Structure formats: structure tokens, C-alpha cells
Amino acid sequence: MSAGKRLSPNDPGSYSLPEKVAVTHIDIELAADFKNEKLKGFVDLSIIKIDESCDHIILDNIDLNVSSIENKDDKTLLDYSIGDRLEVFGSKLEIKIPSKKKSIIRITYETSKTASALQWLTPEQTLGKVHPYLFSQCQPAHARSMLPCQDTPSTKFTYSAKITAPKPLTALMSAVPLDVIDHGETRTFLFQQTVPVQSYLIALAIGNLVSKTLSPISKVWSEPEEIDKAAYEFEQTPELLKTAENVCGPYVWKIYDLLVMPPSFPFGGMENPCLTFVTPTLLAGDRSLVNVVAHEIAHSWTGNLVTNRNFEHFWMNEGFTVYVERRINGLLNGESSREFAALGGLEDLKQSVDNLGAENPLTKLVVDLSGIDPDDAFSTCPYEKGHTFLFYLEKLLGAAKFQIFFKSYIDKFKYKSVDTEDFKSYLLSYFQEDSAISKIDWDLWLYTCGMPPIIPSYDTSNQDACTSLLNRWEQWNGSGDNFKKSDLDTFQTAQVIQFLALVLKSNNFTLFKIKAMQEVYDYNSNGNREIVFRWLRTCVKVKWIEQLELVFKFINTTGRMKYVRPIYRDLYSWEEARTETINNFENNKMRMMYVCRHTVAKDLHLRE
User: Quick one: angle between helices 237-248 and 315-333, nearest 10?
Assistant: First the structure.
């Protein structure tokens, strides 16, 4: 795709024009064919003409094998054409539609074996090793490989589904389960989503799944081998959900379930409504990583209820969600815990800006994605730079007032897709009597590259202990028995993580010191992936060659991009390890989901 090209005026990554003809509801009827790794069936799209003179609808599609398209009412076949295929965004599917204002069109099709939204796992790739598994990941622009749709967050629709799977597998979706119909060797699972959603929130998982109840509206699902661990880890979910309602307003999605995914799942979590997908890397055994669950719960409002119009305004999904996640943290654990999390996020942001380059336009809050693959644009910037802006606004306008405003913003824009201008104009009108708004330099915050223009002053009490231990290690001359395992006794898990982030950033650590640190603290055998991730990056930085086996084992047993991509980039920079690193990737890439495989290949300079 040539640089600068937009597929449609309102969304650079979608051919569809919902401002002319919009899909309002989708009925999905699909069967999972594990042998051929395809979904087969049809979708019924309820459409409405916004522009009554329009005689066609444009849908997004990647490699779907369409066998027929008909008017559901009278079964007449409809003419359609499929345009040229672009590598990332697929093809335009243009369908001649009935003359009525409203109609339903049925598209019979099957997915391709290479559908980027779907990961088909063999039994060996699951925990149980007996049954296959399928899961989807549609954000940002992969739903079009699973079903023909208007694959843009600028429009929303309700949906219902009938999914047929072989016994004994269970199907789950980002919707409320209604019923299960037994056909002998297969079962059909019925679902309904009555709250309008955007295409990337359609989600499906099929596997040998069991559940445990956490509350009247929440269950946790996983393979049987992990269910007790998962139920323990996520026991606080109901409390997190209740706290989120205090921040954002009523929860509208009826149920909130969690599904612990197979290891190849590429994200920490995915906020599929009614059914958050979470990485198994959260199962630390000490409930220390539930901030990811708080983040996904927060998306029930910021992202799912109020949605970025396109991914150029992705900070409105993610920056807002980090803000809510940390508000939840503050209400449950105190304001100092909230602000300490923000300081940790700032370190992650510095790393991201350094990696992308401070002048990279993708470090702006509002970005131009014309001709850019949204997967390639993904970074920490919209999350942490976005959060910093909202925290700055809270400090500037007063916490109590800003928090009331925030709730009213969600209420005003619920069920809608918005852009940065909508937020800006609502805030300026809400606070029009407050002279402090004149201090906000919108252009500087929204359209300037690099780190945020202003870093708010955060409570550093939790950070100070980390810095103090860091200074002791930096100043140590290598002689004497200066450190003990008990150094970390008073540290919360978040402080150990932050201490290691500071060690990674520091240039005052030799291989000798890092080996000494392993002797004292034994990070190699730690069960918390956030700790091990920062530790192994530090080992690579000081070129500790004997640790390579452990490093490869770590990146080969998770598909979570937050871990895999930075470590692969670090390894690529270490010349002696580069060939072995590329070989390791080639040998393991087919265990990765498409988005992880695709982006790591770029990190390793194996594609443009």
C-alpha cells in the first residue's frame, strides 16, 4: 500500500463507507472445521441506507471464499465484485443492494486457512494436549478475515450467533450465551450481543474449556488444567468491576467473564465484551498482575462503550483506559499506589519513545495512519502519553471536578464512536467558566512527537525505595557481602518490577554485578513474568551468554508481544547472538499468532 493513501475518508484502514450504507445487526451462523482450519457458514447483514440514492454497500474482506450473496427476503442473488487485494487491508467487497431503505443480505462463505484473525492450535499446542483449540483476535483490522463486515470502529451493530463445534469442545463469544443444542457428535452454541459493538470486538474461542463462578455475573474460563489457578488469581474481579462502576457509571454488558488463553495469545488482555481474553502470563500465583484485569474491565466503558472513531485516535481508547485502570488502583490501594503505577508507566513510555525515535510521528497522541498498517503503529505511546495528558488535566482542573466530568463524558458519548475533537470541545464547554483551561496547549499535547510536554509531579514514596536500592548497587565496588535476599522483603511486587526497570535503564551495571545480583536475589527462578522479562533483558544487555538458553525458553513459551518483541530487538542488537536469534525465530514462528510473527519479523529486519 503506497504511503499516504486512505482507503476511505473517515478511516484510512477500511474500504467501507458506513456513512452511506450502514450495517445495524449481524446474524452469524458458522461451523468450525478443525481438520481444514476453516470457519464455514453464512452471515446475515441487516443494512440501512443513510444515503438513499446509494445502490451498493462496501464491505472489508481478507481472502474470504464467498460462494453466494443473496437478498434474504426473496432469495434473489445479488451482484458483487471483489477488488484488488492489498497486503494488509485485503480487498473491497462491493455488493449491489435492494432498492429498499432497509434490507437483509446473506453472504455464504468460508474463511481462508491463513485468516489473520484466527489461530488454530493443534492438541500439542494446548495445555491438555488432547483437543484442538481455536481463538480469534480481530483488533485492529482482522475481523474482515473472519467475516465480511464494515471493519471500522466508526460504526457499531448488535449481533447474534450460532456456532457449531465438535464435542467435547465448548464455544464462547464476546456476547451473552443463550443455549446449547446437542446434535450427537457436534453441539451448536447460541449467543446474543444486544449492546452495539464495533467489528474488532467480535470474538470467538473454541476449546476444551471449563469454568468457575466468581460472582453472579462473572465466571473465569480456561482449560481444566489451569482452572483452579485462574480462579484464585482473578478472585478480586467482582471488586474491580464494582470499583470501575464508581469511576465510570453503570456496567451495561450483563456479564463479565474472563477466558485464560493459550500461551500464544499476543496481548496481555483483549477487552472482548462479556468475555475478556487474558494471557496466561498473568497467573503469577500471588494476584500481583491483576492490574491487567482492571485495564480490561475499564475498557467496558472506554473503548467498548465510547470508542475511537478510527485508530488515529487510539489514545482515546487506551490512554483513557489506563487512566481508569489507575483510578481503580487508587481507590482500592491508595493514591500513592496509583501514582507509583504512573511512574512505572512513564519508564515504559521512555523506552518506547527511545525505540521509535523521539521525532517519530507515531509518538504523537493523534497520529496519521494513511498507508500505515495499524499493527505496525502499535506502541506504549497512546497508553502512557494519553494517561499522562489526562492526569495532567485532572491536576490542572482539580481531581474532584475532573472525575465528575469524566463520568459525564462517558454518559454523553456512550454507544458512540468519537475522535479527539469531540473530547476537546466537550471538555472546553464543560469547564468554560474555569480560567485554568486557557493553560492547556492542545496542539503541544496532541500533535508533538516524543515525551509528554509536561510531566505531572507524582508521589514518589514507593519509587524512593527502588531508587535507593539501585544506588547501592550502582555504587558497589564489587567487594564485600553488601546485599541480602532480605533487601526485597519490604518491597511490593510492583516495586521489584520497577527496581528492575531502573536497573535495565542504568548504564552502571557490569556483567559481574548482574551475576552477583542473580546470586543474591535468584531472579532466574522467579514465577512472575513481569520480573523475569526485565531481568532477562538486563542479562542480554550485559551480554551474559550463559543466560541465552533461558532467554530463548522465555520467548518460545509465550506469544505476548509486550515480552517477545523487546527481547527479540535486544537480541538482534547483540551481534554474537544475532544468527542464533534469527534461527530461533524461524524455528518457532509458526507457534506465534499472525500479529506477533508479522511484527517480530520486522523487528529482525526480515521484512520491510
Answer: 110
Q: Are strands 170-173 and 257-260 parallel, antiparallel or unpaired?
A: unpaired
Helices (H), 525-560: 529-541, 548-556
From 383, 392, 563, 568, the catalytic residue: 383
The question of whether 383 is a catalytic residue gets the answer: yes
Nearest to 135 by CA among 167, 102, 165: 165
Helix, strand, or coil (residue 235) = coil
Neighbouring residues of 516: CB distance < 8 A, sequence distance ≥ 6 = 478, 483
Q: Active site residue: 296, 312, 325, 339, which one?
A: 296
C-alpha cell at 502: 531502573
Give the containing element (helix H, strand E) for 39: strand 38-49
Q: Given strand 210-215, what is the order of strands in its sheet?
A: 210-215, 218-222, 257-260, 275-278, 269-270
Q: State the average pLDDT over residues 562-583.
A: 98
**215 touches 229 (CB < 8 A):** no
Name the residue among 116, 109, 137, 114 with its Cα closest to residue 30: 109
Q: What percent of the chain is predicted at pLDDT more than 70? A: 99
pTM check: above 0.85: yes
**What backbone torsions phi and psi does residue 571 show, to the nearest 5 degrees?**
-65, -35
Confirm if 266 and 560 have CB atoms less than 8 A apart.
yes
Whole-Å CA distances, 369 to 9, 167, 306: 12, 43, 21
pLDDT digits (tens, 9 = 90+) for 154-204: 999 999 999 999 999 999 999 999 999 999 999 999 999 999 999 999 999
- CB-based contact 304:283 (threshold 8 Å): no
Across the strands, what pairs with 160? Answer: 27, 192
Distance (Å, whole) CA 136 – CA 199: 12
Cβ 178 vs Cβ 161: under 8 Å = no
Helices (H), ranges, 129-177 = none
CB atoms within 10 A of CB 430: 18
The C-alpha torsion from 58 through 61 and 63 to 68, rounded to 10°, is -50
Summarize the annotated binding site for a peptide as residue ranges.
137-139, 266-271, 560-562
Q: Pick from 194, 494, 449: which is nearest to 344 by CA?
A: 494
